[in-house]
TrEMBL record:
Its cofactor is Mg(2+); Mn(2+). It comes from the Bacteria. InterPro entries: SelO (IPR003846). The keyword Nucleotide-binding applies. Nucleotidyltransferase involved in the post-translational modification of proteins. It can catalyze the addition of adenosine monophosphate (AMP) or uridine monophosphate (UMP) to a protein, resulting in modifications known as AMPylation and UMPylation. It comes from Corallincola spongiicola. Keywords: ATP-binding, Magnesium, Manganese, Metal-binding, Nucleotide-binding, Nucleotidyltransferase, Transferase. HAMAP family: SelO. ATP binds at G85, G87, R88, K108, D120, G121, R171, R178, D257. Mg(2+) binds at N248, D257. The active site is at D247 (proton acceptor). It catalyses: L-seryl-[protein] + UTP = O-(5'-uridylyl)-L-seryl-[protein] + diphosphate; L-histidyl-[protein] + UTP = N(tele)-(5'-uridylyl)-L-histidyl-[protein] + diphosphate; L-tyrosyl-[protein] + UTP = O-(5'-uridylyl)-L-tyrosyl-[protein] + diphosphate; L-tyrosyl-[protein] + ATP = O-(5'-adenylyl)-L-tyrosyl-[protein] + diphosphate. Belongs to the SELO family. The gene is ydiU. The lineage of its organism: Bacteria, Pseudomonadati, Pseudomonadota, Gammaproteobacteria, Alteromonadales. This is Protein nucleotidyltransferase YdiU.
Amino acid sequence: MKISNTYLQLGTAFSESINPLPVADPHLLLWNQSLADKLALSQGLPDNENALAQLFSGNDLLPEASPIACVYAGHQFGQFNPQLGDGRAHLLCEFVDDHQQRWDLQLKGSGPTRYSRRGDGRCALGPAIREYLMSEALHALGVPTTRCLAVVTTGETVYRDLPKPGAVVTRIASSHIRVGSFQYFAAKGDVVSLKTLTDYTIDRHFPTLKAAANPVLELLGAVMDKQITLIVEWMRIGFIHGVMNTDNTAISGETIDFGPCAMLGIYHPGTVYSSIDSGGRYAFGAQPSICRWNMARLAEALLPLIDEDPDKALAQAEALIADFSPRFEQAYQTMLGAKLGLDEIQQTDVALITELLEQMQEQQLDYTQTFHQLTRSLTEQQIATKLQDTLGDWYGQWRQHIGNDSKQQQAAQALMQQSNPVVIPRNHHVEAVLQTCELTNCSAPADALLKVLRSPYQMLAETADYQDLPTDNDRHYQTFCGT
Ligand SMILES: Nc1ncnc2c1ncn2[C@@H]1O[C@H](COP(=O)(O)OP(=O)(O)OP(=O)(O)O)[C@@H](O)[C@H]1O
Ligand SMILES: [Mg+2]
């Protein structure tokens, strides 16, 4: 394992050097062997659970690691906070895998730092397992995401609304640079550090842009494209992030921070589960426009580097941000078309898609199941008849769009099978697993759910156990920024 600490080397303005605070009694609860294998991590790590628990609780450190807490700022629910940062996380080190890809290895829940404010620097076990389950589910679904290598219980109690068992989660990300990282330096007027961070980001994530006429403007465009891809993917599977603050928007385009996230059941764009999102700012259907808003905040932060002339910088940034909506719309319609087996979207297809979404909303149909049933209906007459009853004329029109030819139908079904999961991490199942794991301190329920979630486009023998809808259709479901 080739370890380095390049973010530390950016200088003291970017982070605080600080070691994790040791925990009382670390035990390895979840270990992601397939991720360790994929990143060729195992060679550099101990092979026994106790030693891994010591390492991934922060009690032991890899010899070459120099842990830091990174500083950032961020708009939280629209309000700018100039000083945030890793208040309960330690970036242990970076490592480079066999494909020359650099990764961050970070602990979360590993103790207080300069940026903790009133927080205790710790993480409860439930949210740690949620981050592990949800990020693995997203990864298997094909959605860009940070991932978890381990969850270690600490043997300590953390106090939230109630006393909870504590945990440390190990996160692997292609970096932890956030929109808020740029905002921090921009708000301070520290253009030198802003430039250092920008050069570092281009070098690390978008090296080909170095040769561009205006690399900073190109960086903004590249980040925007990655974010569009990400949000379209969230919309495809019904993921509601829940707290799309600019400090939770990674430049890499990976999903980060699973605090109050949830999955959409019954289709409604206004769906919100987060207890603190009373205004619905981060509702399912608001995610595209919030993403655009976040990209505008990144553009603002980068203005001094886009052009020396502020008017010219603003004009160029505005032109790019104005392009967000058409770029998004195209990717979004293409994605929805694929969910309906249509590989090229015509104007009439757009109307068909919109009509289906309207019907799903009116009839309170489940998002995942509807698309799964539509997929199956191409080869199963019983399901086709049922859907004809539910969706009326729309169903026949859709079948006409696909065509009568058996080759066309096969191609459509293949496309739909790749676009429509048979199973998602439904909120009630995730909650049940978290509760049982918390009570029993045992990983078996999480392992069983993960087995199914790791093959989300395939019916395994156990898949049916996790496909059902909650009895109350999640009407009473709430998530918390559960730190
Ligand atoms: N228990 C805690 N102790 C100290 N700081 C905390 C705690 N919980 C959250 N924070 C800090 O509050 C801010 C907002 O928290 P948020 O829940 O968005 O992030 P997070 O889940 O801690 O981390 P990340 O975004 O890296 O996944 C962050 O700066 C975070 O470090
Ligand atoms: Mg966060």
